[in-house]
């Protein structure tokens, strides 16, 4: 790599989960603090950070093709940093195969990006995929102005080792950020304009800490403390694991108005044999019982989940059990994926990998059932009155778009501003959004 001028503009492109989005925002802040400006839409950037995801197939090939395509108007390459989970998993190989890449930085090391950048400007390429515990959070600068909905990573990493999944390898062991640090960061987000905060973690409900008085608290204790911030109107959390669910967090859904009636709780499969082979250590029945307890304290709760079809050895009958659990739950929203063998995971070398056509057919049937339930959930909301947090302008003049408490997209026409909570009546339902009629604006 030849020495180059310090970049004047940057772009961070984040793929994958919300935690990557959070990390992407934090990297942007680090670059801001170095005096580099975000490139405007459509404008070329001197530095491009590819914040990658490794969860499913073709992740690595996609990174190489993105690297190949990046070019400035004069034909030269921008400075490229590869960050995120592909960087963690395949950092060395990326450095060897892609000479255009100047920096490779793992998800736990990106607070070192500014130093790496100084070296890259001198022509030195560097890789940092260390996992120093908690260091990145401590080293990050203050937040800038934020949107009304903000993410806050409270927990990272995973010790569950589901047999199909790369996350324990790319994100490392489970850690919880300290209570005080999170309360401070949430307060700063609210000062900067956030009205809703989504607490993030690969297993967010495994978060634990000590409150200001030194008492041990779980995620419900953190939620209670954040609910005291007057200008914070809504709290959400994702993603939970069935095995980490606590009585306190379930009860919190009946006690804390600001905690939204929405739960994302992946089940993956409805077959106990498959769940065991996945190392999920819950059963279909224990999962359903857990959901019943949420419905007892919050009957209107919107439920969401993740599914994998075609796990090695999954039979037709076992797939039918997944359809049965969908019928039993009636999800408001859900994400479903074809099983993708990930290098280094136990499931990748299991016998009986399922043929692509079988997976395609199963995915189609599952998605048809999930879409049916999502539409039914939206239709059952028609006639309800609720608050919508306005996130952005809609497609047409005078139209606004926001989210209901149940995380449905709602559009409406009327007087509003981004960040307002507007009371609407839900008037019409589609598969992916609802139309609302404005009743009143609750806060400016
Ligand atoms: N920690 C969360 C989410 C992890 S990744 C959890 O345990 O629920 C998000 C989703 O990606 C998973 O819930 C799973 O449905 C899917 N996923 C993970 N690995 C996969 C793989 N190898 N193939 C297909 N889907 C996968
Ligand atoms: Fe992956 Fe399982 Fe951990 Fe979720 S709980 S991140 S699916 S290993
Ligand atoms: Fe992807 Fe890493 Fe998130 S693999 S889903 S970016 S934790």
Examine the secondary-structure arrangement and name the CATH architecture of the largest domain: Alpha-Beta Horseshoe
Uncertain parts:
none
Q: What best-fitting shape do the alpha-carbon axes yield?
A: globular
Strand order of the largest sheet: 2-1-3-4-5-6
Number of helices: 13
Listed once per kind, the bound small molecules are: S-adenosyl-L-homocysteine, iron/sulfur cluster, FE3-S4 cluster
Largest sheet properties: 6 strands, parallel
**CATH-defined fold name of the largest domain:** pyruvate-formate lyase- activating enzyme
Structure description:
The protein has 444 residues and is α/β, with parallel strands linked by helices. The protein has three domains: 9-133, Rossmann fold, CATH 3.40.50.12160; 136-381, tm_1862 like domain (pyruvate-formate lyase- activating enzyme, Alpha-Beta Horseshoe), CATH 3.80.30.20; 385-443, Nucleic acid-binding proteins (OB fold (Dihydrolipoamide Acetyltransferase, E2P), Beta Barrel), CATH 2.40.50.140. The chain contains 13 helices and 21 strands. The protein has helices spanning 18-33, 59-69, 84-97, 113-121, 135-138, 167-171, 179-191, 219-226, 247-255, 272-277, 284-297, 316-329, 356-381; strands at 9-14, 37-38, 47-52, 79-83, 101-105, 126-128, 149-153, 155-156, 175-176, 196-200, 208-210, 216-218, 234-238, 262-264, 302-309, 333-338, 385-393, 399-403, 409-413, 421-429, 433-443. The strands form six sheets. It has a six-stranded parallel beta sheet, with helices on both faces. The chain has a five-stranded mixed β-barrel with strand order 17-18-19-21-20. Helix 12 links the parallel strand 15 (302-309) and strand 16 (333-338). Helix 8 runs parallel beside helix 9 and helix 12 packs parallel to helix 13. The longest helix has 26 residues, at 356-381. The protein is globular, with a radius of gyration of 23 Å. S-adenosyl-L-homocysteine binds next to strand 15.
């Amino acid at each position: 790599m030849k020495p180059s001028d310090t970049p004047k503009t940057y772009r961070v492109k984040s793929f994958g989960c919300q935690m990557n989005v959070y990390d992407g925002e934090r990297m942007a802040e680090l670059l801001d603090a170095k005096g580099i400006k975000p490139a405007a839409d459509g404008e070329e950037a001197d530095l491009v950070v590819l914040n990658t995801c490794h969860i499913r197939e073709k992740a690595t090939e996609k990174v190489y093709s993105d690297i190949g395509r990046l070019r400035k108007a004069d034909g030269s390459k921008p400075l490229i940093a590869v960050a995120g989970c592909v960087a963690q998993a395949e950092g060395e190989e990326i450095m060897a195969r892609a000479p255009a890449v100047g920096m490779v930085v793992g998800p736990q090391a990106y607070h070192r990006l500014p130093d790496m950048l100084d070296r890259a400007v001198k022509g030195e390429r560097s890789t940092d995929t260390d996992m120093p515990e908690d260091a990145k959070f401590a080293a990050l600068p203050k937040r800038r102005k934020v949107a009304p909905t903000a993410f806050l990573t409270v927990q990272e990493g995973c010790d569950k080792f589901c047999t199909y999944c790369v996350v324990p390898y790319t994100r490392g062991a489970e850690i919880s950020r300290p209570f005080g640090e999170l309360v401070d960061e949430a307060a700063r987000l609210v000062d900067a304009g956030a009205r809703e905060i989504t607490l993030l973690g690969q297993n967010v409900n495994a978060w634990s800490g000590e409150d200001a008085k030194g008492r041990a608290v779980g995620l419900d204790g953190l939620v209670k403390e954040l609910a005291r911030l007057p200008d914070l109107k809504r709290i959400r959390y994702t993603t939970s694991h069935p095995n980490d669910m606590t009585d306190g967090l379930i009860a919190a859904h009946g006690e804390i108005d600001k905690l939204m009636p929405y739960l994302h709780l992946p089940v993956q499969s409805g077959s106990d044999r498959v769940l065991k082979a996945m190392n999920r250590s819950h059963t279909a029945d224990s999962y359903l019982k857990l959901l019943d307890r949420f419905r007892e304290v919050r009957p209107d709760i919107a439920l969401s989940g993740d599914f994998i079809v075609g796990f090695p050895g999954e039979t037709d009958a076992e797939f039918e059990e997944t359809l049965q659990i969908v019928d039993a739950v009636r999800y408001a929203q859900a994400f479903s994926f074809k099983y993708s063998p990930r290098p280094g995971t136990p499931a990748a070398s299991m016998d009986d990998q399922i043929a692509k056509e079988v997976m395609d057919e199963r995915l189609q049937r599952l998605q048809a059932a999930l879409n049916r339930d999502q539409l039914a959930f939206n239709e059952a909301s028609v006639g309800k009155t609720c608050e919508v947090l306005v996130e952005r302008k809609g497609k047409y003049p005078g139209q606004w778009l926001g989210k209901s408490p149940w995380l449905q997209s709602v559009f409406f026409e009327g007087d509003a501003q981004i960040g307002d909570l507007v009371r609407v009546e839900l008037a019409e339902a589609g598969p992916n959004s609802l139309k609302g009629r404005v009743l009143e604006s609750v806060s400016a």
